[in-house]
Amino acid sequence: MVNRRVVVLLPESLLREVDRVAHREYGSRSAFIRDAMRHLLAEKLRTEKREKMAVGYQKMGPLNLELAEEGIGQDLVEFDHYLDRLAAGEDY
């Protein structure tokens, strides 16, 4: 992997906080910033996936409801048949 140098402008107070945590837990500012950027990118991707899934569920809602209702109707027919056979004393 090739590393590239970038220039980022940060408020002084934020840079102090980054340096305080970075040197204590990561050893360097660069390692901290790389990790923070990876974390933020992963979180953004998760959020995008959730949003896409929500849209998909909304689009599929009517079809899922129709299929569920169709399945329930068939289940009720089979259940009625089962009850009829029980009432007649037949083995199921």
TrEMBL record:
GO biological process: regulation of DNA-templated transcription
Gene3D superfamilies recorded: Met repressor-like
Superkingdom of the organism of origin: Bacteria
Record-given protein name: Ribbon-helix-helix protein, CopG family
Organism per entry: Capillibacterium thermochitinicola
Lineage: Bacteria, Bacillati, Bacillota, Capillibacterium
